[in-house]
Amino acid sequence: MGTSAEAAELSKLPEGRPAAAFPLGLPVLLVRRGGEVYALENRCAHMGCPLAAGKLDGYVLQCPCHDWRFDIRDGKFLDAPELAVKIYAAEIKDGKVFVRLP
Ligand code: FES
Asked: Above 90 in pLDDT, residue 35?
């Protein structure tokens, strides 16, 4: 379900460095990690800071504003997993990253 939208060229996504993208104008954060690409909403679940400016350690992304930490695989806030940022399914096709948006 949803719409598949092109978000980035895979070659422009460096391993382990969060990158902002705007498929269909939506703020999405892409992270290439271990042969996979993860896509999350680029807005912190706390106060909406852009997570693309955060620091990545393994699969844990730390928000640049108040240091909340999220798992990029499921979007969950590590200290309270009932809070999370939205995640989107990402797919690599013909060297491009597509994300499935609602
Ligand atoms: S806005 Fe991200 S931790 Fe506060």
From this structure: no
d(C-alpha 54, C-alpha 49), whole Å: 9
Residue nearest to atom 1 of ligand 1 (CA): 47
Per residue in 58-82, pLDDT tens?
999 999 999 999 999 999 999 999 9
- Ligand 1 pocket (Cβ < 6 Å) reads 44, 46-47, 49, 63, 65-66, 68
Please give the residue range of the domain that contains residue 66: 3-101
Ligand 1 centroid–CA 16 distance in Å is 20
Q: Which residue has the tokens 């730390």?
A: 62
**pTM for this predicted structure:** 0.94
What CATH number corresponds to the domain at position 11? 2.102.10.10
Count of domains forming the chain:
1
